[in-house]
Fold:
Amino acid sequence: MAFDAEKEIYKTWRSKKAAQDEIGKMYMRWRQVALDLAGEKANPLDVSLKCSEIMGREVGKSWLPRMSFAKGEENWLKGLTMNYVGWWSTLGASIKAQPGEKPFEVFLSWNRCPWPTFCKEYEVPMEEDVLCCDAFLKHILKDVNVFFNVEYDIETLKAIPRGQGQCLRRLFKVEK
Amino acid sequence: MAKQLFEWDYSSYAGAKKYPNLFSPIQVGNLIVPNRIKYAATEDNLNDEHGFITDADVAYMRSRAEGVVGGLCFMQGVYMDPARKGQGYVGQAACWDDKFVPGLKRIADAIHGEKAIAGFQLMDCGRVGAVEVPSGHGPSTVPQRLRIFKPMFEMTVKEVEEMVQQHVNAAKRGVEAGFDVMEISGIVGYLLSNFVSSYTNRRTDKYGGDLRGRMQAVVEIIQGVKEAVGPDVPVGIRLCCEELLDDVRGNTPEESLETYRIAEQAGADYLSVTAGWQESIVPVISRDVPMGSWLHLAKRAKGALKIPVQMAYRLFIPELPEKAIAAGELDFWEMCRSMIADPYMPKKVLEDRQNEIRHCVACNLCLARLFRDAPMTCYINPLCAHEHDQGFYPQPVADDDKKNIMIVGAGPAGMECAYVAAQRGHEVHVYDKRSELGGTLIEASKAPYGDEELMTCVTYQKTLAEKYGVNLHLGAEVNADLISEEMPDAVVLATGPVYSQLKGVEPGDKRVVNVLDVLGGRAQVGETVVVWGNRKPGIGVALSLAKQGKKVTIVGEDKSAGFDINPSFKWRYAIYLRQNGVNAYNDCTIAEVGDGQIIVKTFDGCKFPVKCDTLVVTEREANEDLKSAVQGEGIEFYVIGDALVPRNLSSAVHDGYRIGLRI
Structure:
């Protein structure tokens, strides 16, 4: 049978990379559209933060059908974590999750992320990348928290765009 | 003193002797119900866009009223708020003003015309409502999990009080329209179930908090409605016995049972037991759930309550409720889908004509249609929702117009056409090369997860074919010579599909087998199997082989597996494929068949190998055989079912019925 495995894998891998690249570029093009519509008086960071808020909430909503409390909160948190990991991996990041020392605490670390590269290419300030990513991650939790009647938060401890070598974030249950 | 609206004497009916409990009277509130049959309130999307009753709905209800033979017959739940937040279906009846009463009276009169008891249901759809407005209402602002539902916002205390009053006012209008029983709907994600559930009610005021607080709105409605309608009109309620919402921290079964006790204490005269919400991820009523699976919930309710207990939920045969009533585990046999499929089902049970029942196949097409703003349709009953249209009933033909009809194929399309045409007075001959009736349905019904229930269609068609004198010629293959010899006035080709051939595969290649031979147990199948085709036949055979322990992969050209399965059932198959380890390569073709493997080609041209000992063909095409033979003779002829375009059982039955009416 005429079948060259390496050639086919390369073709598939190349398509995936191209798709990841286009996702980032598409975001940057839409960012420019939003800035043009917002006008000169608008602060680009405000526009980008609003976008992160909307996108975060939409992504959070899309996770709701895949999450379940049926096997308890620990498993639920595992599901939430895996959604974060899966979402970023799909976009081309290298991300790992490790449980924290406290109950219901997880550390997410990004050793590679494509977004600072996009920011550089489209001349977007690096700090905007950090703040938008932060807003995006937090807004994912908005509807998740309300829907499951829980209170979780995520905070940024380190960020690649700040030259800290990796992004490190803590996902945790808010103590009342 | 309890009153009886209509006199019914079942003593001379064979069915009443066979099912004495189903046809024994019972007191509900101050009303004597002559039997234990109830057509449960079911939306049908047949009313107009403003909520006024249409002729179609009246005719639909009249047939169901005839079917319950004196029992309870409920019209669909009405929405009660002018803002239409409570409206969950585009064709749902409304009752927020007196102007709706005349239309509602037509329904009550139609039900009474059949000597049945008219039931009226109050239904604010809450979380699954607001079908015509941008947002809905509920006890708390909890985001929707499914995008098809509108965002919802928390009701103020004043709005909750108004909602309670809307129930009371609507109940008064129901009585004015002539209805005999009131029912409050608190199930499947509708507003009152939203109040009851810990999942959707996060309030801290008098309508929230603990279970008593979450039941407060329900209690106020029961008490308000009872006071408004008076002692002669029983007031019942439908509540979940299990919400099946563990994944989102809904009520526990113990809490649900407590809601039953609270409803009874508040004055409910009966309780209708239900399970699950529309959002539940647990299957409740699809064909993969065995019949009678939920009877334990009725038993649990009976143990906790003194008032009569009713339940539907996969009780499709009379033996189940009969036994449960005898055992003191149930009081009423409720039906929704089984009387959508056959409005006269209980009547046929009473008259001991059970083989004439067109059984629901629990496919949930009816629900899928309603959720997508389409009028009610039944997969298996072509007359459903056309009861008002005389053109949909078999009309007798004049003696001069009677024809000698040859139907080729005794599958569901051919047999449906056969009995309808024979019922109209034609002389009908059905030929099939097989020695038994059913066509490819015989093999299709061997797929797992409840597909054996599909064979009820064959029993029904066989009975009616015998009743109307259809001539069966089984084991007889039709060819051009036979057609010339018989020279019928009309020929109907219902020969089923032909199975597609893969390029490069020689006929007789033992690696390639046909789905019918696999499901029929006639083919040798290896341990590693590829199924070609990702529609229902492919999924059915894949699951059947996977359950035998084989490694199965599906390859098909549709973008997702199960394109021909309605969305209300398709999600179940997606789960079963996953659970049974079946990989599906959708949007793909088979580029090559080799020894021990095939090459799959994706839509964008990538290729990869998949191990394969046996390739099962399920892809089908229209059947052109015999067409030219018939056309050449200048005979009136029709092609129906999969022979015309390969589809599903529903299309076969509907094709057959329509052509049976037309010949």
Observations:
- The two ends of chain B are 56 Å apart (CA to CA).
- Chain B touches chain A at residues 141-147, 199, 202, 246-249, 281, 592, 594, 597, 599, 604-609 (CB under 8 Å).
